[in-house]
Amino acid sequence: xxxxxxxxxxxxxxxxxxxxxxxxxxxxxxxxxxxxxxxxxxxxxxxxxxxxxxxxxxxxxxxxxxxxxxxxxxxxxxxxxxxxxxxxxxxxxxxxxxxxxxxxxxxxxxxxxxxxxxxxxxxxxxxxxxxxxxxx
Length: 136
Fold this sequence. Notes:
Number of helices: 5
Strand order of the largest sheet: 1-2-3
Number of domains: 1
Oligomer: single chain
Structural class: alpha+beta
CATH topology: Bacillus phage protein
CATH class: Alpha Beta
Largest sheet: 3 strands, antiparallel
Shape: globular
Helix content: 40-55%
């Protein structure tokens, strides 16, 4: 994923539930009754932090210049120990994670991955179709 308007639009729609449209090559979002230019969620930490707060994303520095963002549910953790226990348990079905040099971008990437996984969990499961050998 690359930072930019496409991902910013997905964040506005999929994370915040905002209406998004373009007028005269300017992209706007509607948050409640407030209409404004689309925020640069993937480039500006000020706006990415709103994503991190909404999705309860943990952001950690890794290596010398990279960031690790991890979204694992909207309840958060009571303490660092609970976070470590969650990681040890390895139950990441509805989690989103990303690593990269841009903190705003990895926050947005982790948020979108978590939203996609949560949406997939809620989707109705299709029943397996029996093969011909089973029917005979």
